[in-house]
Amino acid sequence: MPTIRMKCKEHCPHCPYRVPHVLSHSAHAIVCIDACFTHKGKKKPRDPFHMHPETIFIPEDKILTMEQYVDSICRQDSQHTRSKARSSDLTPSQPDSYEGPIRVPNSVLDACHESFAAADENRQKASTQFFSETGNMALLCRHDRVLWMAVMTSAGEKQHYVLALLHRLFEHLPPDMTVGLLYDIACKLHRSCIKWGFLDEFLPRITFAVSVFHAYGHQWPCQLIYHPQKCSGFGLTDGEGCERFWSAMKILIAILRICGVSFPDVLTRLINSPFQYLSTINAYSYWTTE
Predict the structure, then answer these.
(1) Which of 137, 149, 200, 210 is most buried per CB count within 10 Å?
(2) Are 212 and 240 contacting, i.e. CB atoms less than 8 angstroms apart?
(3) What integer is the mean pLDDT of 188-214?
(4) Residue-range domain boundaries for the chain
(5) pTM for this predicted structure
(6) Most confidently modeled of 76-90, 121-135, 240-254, 267-281?
């Protein structure tokens, strides 16, 4: 299996390929995750399957396995919660509680959940009736270089895509390397990992933070814990590398909308280009639209 050293040499020469000598409160690597529902693919006859040998896209079977795992865990816990609620007398005035080691009350996290559309997995952001690929989710390093991507096929922003990307990342990291993760709804993801046991083996090595542009939409107690400039080790990292990546790719929207299922191969070739990939994508886009 490729190591983080190989991955960094291929995509980002600035990323560390071994555990650096830094302060214990600092993350060894910083990554950001975000989803984009503008890069959709219409339902159409499938092209012959072709996968780039150095693809940045997680295979469909890996994502499906993670989805089934997440659904099975949540289903078991929901059944247990319903049976527990029926057997206990619920009082109208229950004190606010905390989820494990999380230092933000559940009431605050619930308010953050209601504030963001990304936190609502059931909200439809793309029609599965007309589109077979409803969007992309990307994992970028601190220097805005793409490490992995996942093709989304659901109408909403499901958590299993994030978990699949993080699992793939830790598969390529040394066992003592820590990660600072920036995500629009990192507070909800952190609570899910604690509550459901997701990424249990990697959780002690993850520091969660909310991307800067979305942090001010969270509740104030949540900002005190998850704002990256209030967390040790993030410095001035804003976590908005994915937004810059989506902006560079916007001219490909029309092309990928009618492209076959080999469009991950096209993106992989562009991103793996020896040139600065954002400039390469823009140049390729203008060339194909002329």
Answers:
(1) 210
(2) yes
(3) 93
(4) 4-17+25-43+51-72+100-289
(5) 0.82
(6) 240-254
Per-residue pLDDT tens over the stretch 252-263: 787 777 766 566
Cβ within 8 Å of residue 45, ≥6 positions away? none
